[in-house]
Write a structure and sequence with these properties.
With 411 residues, the chain is of the alpha+beta class. Its cofactor is Mg(2+); Mn(2+).
């Protein structure tokens, strides 16, 4: 069986590890050097729709997993499915839930799904006028995709004005900042809940907690994620029931009513606020590092689940997760997400299980090629044991100017 996984980061490596078997030839598009011993890496950009389609035809692929947000939002699944290829990942219409924060907010409003109050703007002066009248802190978000960095918590008017100017005038996120949201600031513990979805049914994964801030104590800038744990210790049965009734099922119903073709992984970014559970955001794919944290706990064949989603047969597909706790710690290059070194050699024991993200080969050596380099995940009967194992293992990795938070899973 020939399978392609579109993407080249830690999330995609976690997917690869979960579906690989001797009877499956797996292509990574583009993959990275850390995956090259487990799959065939193909030097194509994830945004090269025509190139990916031609490759799929040449190889006569049996199944394609479209993992990153950009190609999903741009409609890669639409193109592949229209050419006859079975895929895991939502079509463009479903991916709008992540591709446009304003669309997602309006969707939630239409279907009475609890979320923070907000105002949307596409004119800088109007946004600035509103900001002068609002209370602080508030949240300012670029409407489109911004690599997990398009969200600013403005503590005062000056910070808010600076964020608006950077997004709407300086275009630090390109066209993603053409429109912005100014949103009510909510306080509470955050929860990541991922679900397999075939458009008709949802099968929920264990709740997770992502550590987004670069520095210990949840300080510093937002990143793509510095670590993750599961299950989330703040998520209980009562909260799960509230989410099922007020968020998960209304979202599924709303997608069906609006013909949003969503066959993939639906991510609910939630906050446990004093006013109840509210949705901070939707994502249209596995989170990173949530994928590295959750997939090792999955007890069924991930590929079979993905195929069931593609065929709208998820209802009859068994999806079971281990009751173990899981802890993922991310190794980054010092200074990430701003200024950091690349090209530093990485060394580690050959038997160490690693999900590689930003790595490449340089003169025969594995070196870092981006800020987030790799992650280590451990599972154990308790979160404390899983945490201890992950830190023991990541200490065996050597990277000049490498950095990882030492407070992951400290509850």
């Amino acid at each position: 069986m020939k399978i392609a996984i579109i993407g080249g980061g830690g999330r995609e490596h976690a997917i690869l590890k979960k579906i690989k078997s001797p009877d499956r030839h797996i292509f990574m598009v583009p993959g990275n050097a850390g995956m090259a011993t487990e799959a065939t890496c193909v030097n194509l950009s994830t945004s090269d729709t025509e190139g990916i389609l031609n490759f799929a035809k040449q190889q006569k692929l049996d199944f394609i997993i479209v993992s990153p947000d950009n190609p999903l939002v741009e409609g890669l699944v639409d193109c592949l499915e229209e050419a006859g290829f079975a895929c895991f990942g939502p079509r463009k219409c479903g991916a709008r839930l992540e591709g446009s924060k304003i669309f997602a907010k309006e969707f939630m409003q239409r279907h009475q799904i609890p979320t923070a109050s907000y105002h949307a703007f596409e004119n800088l002066q109007q946004a600035q006028t509103f900001l002068k009248q609002t209370s602080f802190p508030c949240v300012i978000k670029a409407d489109g995709l911004a690599f997990g960095k398009g969200v600013v918590i403005a503590r005062n008017l000056q910070e808010g004005m600076d964020a608006l100017k950077e997004m709407m005038e300086d275009k630090i996120f390109g066209e993603s900042g053409t429109r912005v949201l100014i949103e009510e600031f909510l306080e509470g513990k955050e929860v990541s809940v991922l679900a397999f979805c075939d458009g008709l049914n949802l099968k929920i994964m264990p709740p997770a907690m992502d550590y987004k801030k670069a520095l210990e104590g949840n300080q510093g800038l937002n990143t793509g994620g510095m670590g993750c744990i599961a299950p989330n210790p703040y998520f209980n049965e009562k909260i799960a029931q509230e989410c099922q009734e007020n968020i998960f099922l209304p979202t599924l119903k709303g997608m069906r009513e609006e013909n949003l073709d969503f066959r993939g992984c639906l991510y609910f970014g939630l906050i446990l606020s004093a006013k109840g559970v509210k949705v901070l955001e939707y994502n249209c794919r596995f989170g990173d590092p949530e994928a590295q944290t959750l997939l090792p706990l999955l007890q069924n064949d991930l590929l079979e689940i993905m195929q069931a989603c593609s065929k709208k047969q998820l209802a009859s597909q068994e999806v079971c997760f281990s009751t173990l706790a899981s802890c993922c710690v991310v190794l980054a290059s010092q200074g990430y997400p701003q200024h950091f070194e690349t090209g530093n050699p990485i060394s580690y024991p050959s038997d160490l299980e690693i999900c590689f993200a930003g790595v490449k080969h340089d003169q025969g050596k594995l070196v870092n090629s981006s800020g987030r380099v790799l992650s280590i995940t451990s599972s154990a009967p308790t979160l404390e044991e899983a945490r201890e194992l992950s830190y023991e293992r990541i200490a065996q990795v050597s990277l000049a100017n490498g950095y990882y938070r030492r407070d992951i899973a400290q509850i």
